[in-house]
Amino acid sequence: MNAAQKYAILRSRSVIASIKISYFMLGVCKFNKKRYLCRLKKHFLLTKFIFMNHYETVFILTPVLSDVQVKEAVDKFRGIITNGGGQIVHEEDWGLKKLAYPIQKKSTAFYTMMEFQAEGQLIEKLETEFRRDERVIRFLTFKLDKDAVEYAVRRKDKLNSKKEA
Fold first, then answer.
1. pLDDT at 82 over 70
2. What is the DSSP string of 110-139?
3. What is the spatial distance between Cα 53 and Cα 157, in angstroms, rounded to a whole number?
4. Helix (H) or strand (E) holding 65
5. Fewest CB atoms within 10 Å of the CB: 17, 56, 126, 128?
6. Multiple choice CATH, 53-164, 3.40.50.1010, 3.30.70.60, 3.40.50.1240, 3.30.830.10
7. pLDDT value, residue 103
8. Is 63 helix (H, G, I), strand (E, B) or coil?
9. Span 101-151, pLDDT tens digits
10. What pTM, to 2 d.p., does this model score?
């Protein structure tokens, strides 16, 4: 196993482990804490190394919207993610579905799911916009662990194979 593979494995586990292994690969002594922290700061300043987490968000839009208004709302949230430095990995429009129970006296709603990579600070901004937008009935955003990311990739491949067939 070469150094790059070790780095990839440890990066998936935690930010701290990946920082330590990257400095191990550079030959920096991790026992000299001052030197280590100084080089750590330089490393981040020079390379702008940013760790992005995988997230998935599902939001429900009110059923009184037209198709154009639904697309406009989805574009708004997509723009918040991309303008905040995130990358959209996958997006699904589940369409108009019946709710399990009435929410705000509505029994149906438009569902949309987005899978994306972003920093943790972006989630606060995104959820604030969900709360402010009156078109959104409910939303749920959660961080995907490595097993969930693998499952999402398999699900996405399965959906793509169904579309091609």
1. yes
2. EEEEEEEEE-HHHHHHHHHHHHH-TTEEEE
3. 21
4. none
5. 128
6. 3.30.70.60
7. 93
8. coil
9. 999 999 999 999 999 999 989 999 999 999 999 999 999 999 998 888 888
10. 0.66
